[in-house]
Every structure is written in C-alpha cells, then in structure tokens.
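Here is one chain, start to finish.
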Amino acid sequence: MPKSKPAGDKHVCLKHTSWVRGVRFTPDGSRLLTACFDGFVHEWDVATRKRARTFEIGQWCSALAVSADGARVVGGNNVGRVVVWDRATGRAVADWNTGRANVYDLDFAPDGTAVASANHDGTVSVWPVKSNPKGEHGAAHTGRVWSVRYDPTGCAVASGGEDGDIVVRSLLGGEPKRWHAHDGHVAALAYTPGATHLFCATLSDTYIGQTEGRRRTRETNLKLWQVSAPDKPALALAAPAAHGVAVSADGRLVATAHTGHTVMVWTFEKKKPPRILTGHEDAVFAVAFAPDGKTLASAGPDCTARLWALS
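Its structure:
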C-alpha cells in the first residue's frame, strides 16, 4: 500500500475543560454528544458549533451512547455509575451503580430497551432500561473490557478487552464465541452494517530500528473478522496503535483513532491509502461518523472534540 501523507485538513474544534473520552452523533446528525472527564455529557449543535445542553453524571464521564431513535443518551463514569437520560427533558430515566469500578464503553440495543456496559472487572453487563434492575453481569475477559457493541440485529453483544480477546455472546442463548484477536489490547470494536463482520482496533506497536533508512515494521492494529468463522482475520492492515474505530452507515468508510495524535480514514472500495487527519495535540481516543458519512468526529485528552468534513 502506498505511503500516506498527512492531509492537514481544516476542521472545527469544540473545546472542553478536560479530557474527552467519547463522541456520538444523534441519528439525524444535527447534534454531537461528548463524554468529558469534567463529569458531564455535552450536547453540541453541529451547525452552530455551540453547546446546546449538558447531562451531569459526576466524577470522570468515561463513556456514552445514543439510542437509535435519538430520544435517550446514556453516560458512564469512573466509579461505575451509569445514567440514562431523556434527551428532550434532561430527566434521568435510569440510574445504576454497577459496583464494578470504571465503565469504559456503553452501547444501546438497537430497539433502545437495554444498555450494555464494558466494565473494569472483566465483565460485560446488560441493563434493561424500563425495569431498572440490577442488570445481568457476565464474566467476559481477563482484565479490563475496553469495548462493547450490540450487533445491528440486536441478537448479540460483542466485547473486546485487555486480554486481546473478542467475545461474542448471543442473547438468544448458547455458549459465547471467543477468539484471540491480538497480543495487545483490543481497544475498540465496530460492526459492519450487515452484522457479518467486526472491525477491531488494537493497542500495540512494534518498531524494528530507530535509525533513518533502517527497516521498520508496524503491527496490524486494524483487523476485520468474519464473526461466523473467525479462524483468521478477513483483513489485517498495518496501522499505528489505535484507541478507537468506527464504520460509516453505508459501510464504505472506516475511521481509526490513534495514539500518535492522528485519525485515519480508510476507503476500501477504491483500495486507496488511508487519509490522515492531523490537528489533535495528543492521542485520539474515539471517532464517530455522522449518519450521512460526510462528517467525522474525534476526541482525545487534548480537551477537544473535532469535526472533520470528509466531502
């Protein structure tokens, strides 16, 4: 694959007062939600670039998700609290204490009736929103669980963790499917639209040689897996260590968030090298596509979320 050059693209910077751990668009693309270590989920008007409202959770807000109908937002923090809010009223409709320390990731079921959380203690929890119970907790990983995603059908929950494994648990019953995806951490997961494949971003970089002109190798930190037959990756691409991954709604684009202050946008149909977006002043934690695929959001510990025009 040809060597990529930084694009230096123009973008909009949404400033926060602390680290920004997550980003999600509303289904109509008009608003961006950000999870900030100041203890709030912030909602931004994409057109005006102004903050529209906030949802307070306290401590460090470390994860968020938006329901498929856009009516609700969920946030999680570093002491295990998970709160679901009605976006229109700002009222909390569910508030759980997981008792499992840091919540690293959250995802709504496609029908909005439940929330899955990725937990510090190696478990994945599923929380029915209406009944507001204690939730169901299943041991999934050895070490922290970094990422959790419902498949687009709502029939399974996938998780990736510190142990380098991916676990797909069917909500219809049966044994979970597990495979070792990487010798480093599986930091983030994203399903393709048809639910047949799963992208994973991993955290580990190996370089051989530090001198100019010497051979250098880079690990494959972006992989694509066929969920039904994960014996080997369907695709493995050389990329720097990555915290986040996202797939556009039409499946044409994949974005990755990297430790080296960059975002990469991959267009597989045209077999082009990734477009590299520069502007962050620290590692990038998360990426998310707008529903129309024309805008990408990113966030990181430089206390910003950024909006990139892709077309």
